[in-house]
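Holo model, PBG. Inputs:
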Amino acid sequence: MPYPIQRPRRLRRTDALRSLVRETKLTRDDFVLPLFVCSGTKVRREISSMPGVFNLSVDETVEEVSRAFDIGVRSVILFGLPESKDETATGAYAEDGIVQRALRAIKKSTPDVIAMADTCLCEYTSHGHCGVVRDGDVVNDESLKLLAKTALSQAQAGADVVAPSSMMDGQVASIREALDTSGFEHIPIMAYAVKYASGFYGPFREAADSAPAFGDRRAYQMDPPNAREAMREAQLDYEEGADILMVKPATVYLDVLRMVRDRYDVPLAAYHVSGEYALIKAAAQRGWIDEQRVMLETLTSIKRAGADIILTYYARDAIKALE
Ligand code: PBG
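Output:
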């Protein structure tokens, strides 16, 4: 047997060599930190299925954003837990809604942070669905009006980016129109274009108190086995004027992420969702895996598959680990 001429190990010999030839590098600019804003003051309530993640009152959210910004987190995305819910999700578009109040306070105290707002109705409806319910069905076009109203009120409160996540058909177009006709043509839309009906959202529904009271979300979120259909969803949102496309969840849909990356030349986001976070946390708490290592390997895989932007509850820890 002759010695091999090709020896890939040559470039793996030292840390410096490995770093020199590293193809994918995470940076602090990649991350968006999701936050859950609730009513009250001085509230800091840990979510049992998401250790390290809290429901925070507006004052605590402001503190949290400012601390996170200081360590390098440059973007946050806000979800709201309103004081009361109703059939038409009034809290989603109220001028003094929970997210609207948080946006104003954040932009005052940390003006340079990118404050994104998740635009959906499920946290604000009494039934927990992402749209208006009529005779047991989530009706599309009526929901669009409320989503457009919600996005507009978020922009008026200071949101730098709005992120529609309800999976209603035409949500990007109706939000774009509402923003453009009210002087917010400069506000980008990050569209949850490809969002699957996923079991990985379980812990989020505890965090955002948004589990549907009846049925499930399969009549509007995507069927997990479908990838071609994901291209159709991405195409529609792209045509409707989405500035950023998103695939969600991230790790079990890396194939879909890569397909969207290869077809669309707009920035691509991936949401490393609550259940993906909880799996790593739970195994780490039992001492079964090295949390930091698995976290970085996971986030790197998402970037390697094509994501430019990663929404993750690990944003802070990842940035700390990268220092
Ligand atoms: C709202 C929304 C959800 C998530 C983001 N926006 C929940 C859902 O669709 O049930 C999930 C985020 C996560 O699991 O971390 N529609």
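DSSP finds twelve helices and twelve strands in the chain. Residues 140-156 form the longest helix (17 residues).
Archived with the compound record.
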